[in-house]
């Protein structure tokens, strides 16, 4: 079974019995708590940046706030959990051998709970007028059925960009880079600037879920689950088939 060496993103082979010899708290509890904390911080900043930006047609401020916040939390917490803070990222990490399957659902639960806490904190620190003017930072870009296809496609493509950066910059031992946390953040900035007015550039079901609960806004919410998860599945298959290291590539191993 593959396991992630969190400090370097290096994938190593380890038996199930060997995996359980690692202290349970360090192997299971600490990473989950870090995913909860990191998701809370990232989504709090993301929501607050949208709520406080009353010129809702401008995406620069939220893009910078969210991208830089993600860079920071990945840089300071990634050594413990891998620095996902996103169910779509955790899914692609499992697919390419960068996260033990046993941790996938606990990670998802912690990330969604972090989204709820972050969105609740943003609501608590915002005036009621600003909160509702921004719909609680929920994704309201799609207003009618005719926009759905474009939004789903945008979410898939933008998530592919983010997932590729994570896979090739953080997890894949052949291409990982010490500046990967900042590359991850920059990919979020670019994605929001490019696709913010098309779909909102969520790329993260936890980021969509928390504000949706706080604002009770569920219109077209499914887009922000389907698009990111499809994008991460595509990248997982792509890396497994063509671009992984010697341990994860399924074909073209000798090329």
UniProtKB/TrEMBL annotation:
One of its GO terms (cellular component) is intracellular canaliculus. InterPro entries: Aquaporin-like, Aquaporin_8, Aquaporin_transptr, MIP. It is a multi-pass membrane protein. It catalyses: H2O(in) = H2O(out); H2O2(out) = H2O2(in); formamide(out) = formamide(in); methylamine(out) = methylamine(in). The chain crosses the membrane at residues 32-51, 63-81, 88-109, 148-171, 178-202, 222-243. GO terms for biological process: ammonium transmembrane transport; hydrogen peroxide transmembrane transport; one-carbon compound transport. One of its GO terms (molecular function) is water channel activity. It is found in: Apical cell membrane; Basolateral cell membrane; Mitochondrion inner membrane; Smooth endoplasmic reticulum membrane. Keywords: Cell membrane, Endoplasmic reticulum, Glycoprotein, Membrane, Mitochondrion, Mitochondrion inner membrane, Oxidation, Repeat, Transmembrane, Transmembrane helix, Transport. Its main location: membrane. The keyword Metal-binding does not apply. The keyword Secreted does not apply. It comes from the Eukaryota. Belongs to the MIP/aquaporin (TC 1.A.8) family. This is Aquaporin-8. It comes from Trichechus manatus latirostris (Florida manatee).
């Amino acid at each position: 079974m593959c396991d992630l060496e969190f400090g370097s993103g290096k994938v190593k082979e380890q038996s199930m019995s060997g995996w359980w010899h690692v202290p349970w708290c360090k192997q299971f509890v600490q990473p989950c708590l870090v995913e909860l904390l990191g998701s809370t911080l990232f989504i709090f900043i993301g929501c607050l940046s949208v709520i406080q930006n009353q010129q809702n047609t401008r995406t620069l401020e939220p893009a910078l706030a969210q991208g830089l916040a993600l860079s920071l939390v990945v840089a300071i917490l990634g050594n413990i959990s891998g620095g996902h803070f996103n169910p779509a990222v955790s899914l692609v990490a499992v697919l390419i051998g960068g996260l033990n399957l046993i941790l996938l659902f606990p990670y998802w639960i912690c990330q969604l709970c972090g989204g709820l806490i972050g969105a609740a904190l943003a609501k608590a620190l915002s005036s009621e007028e600003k909160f509702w003017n921004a719909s609680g930072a929920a994704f309201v870009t799609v207003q009618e059925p005719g926009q759905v296809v474009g939004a789903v496609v945008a979410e898939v493509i933008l998530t592919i960009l983010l997932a590729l950066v994570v896979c090739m910059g953080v997890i894949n031992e052949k291409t990982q880079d010490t500046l990967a946390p900042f590359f991850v953040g920059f990919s979020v900035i670019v994605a929001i600037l490019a696709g913010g007015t098309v779909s909102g550039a969520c790329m993260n079901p936890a980021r969509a879920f928390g504000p949706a609960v706080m604002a009770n806004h569920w219109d077209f919410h499914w887009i922000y689950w389907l698009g990111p998860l499809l994008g991460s599945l595509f990248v997982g298959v792509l890396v497994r088939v063509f671009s992984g290291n010697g341990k994860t590539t399924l074909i073209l191993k000798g090329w």
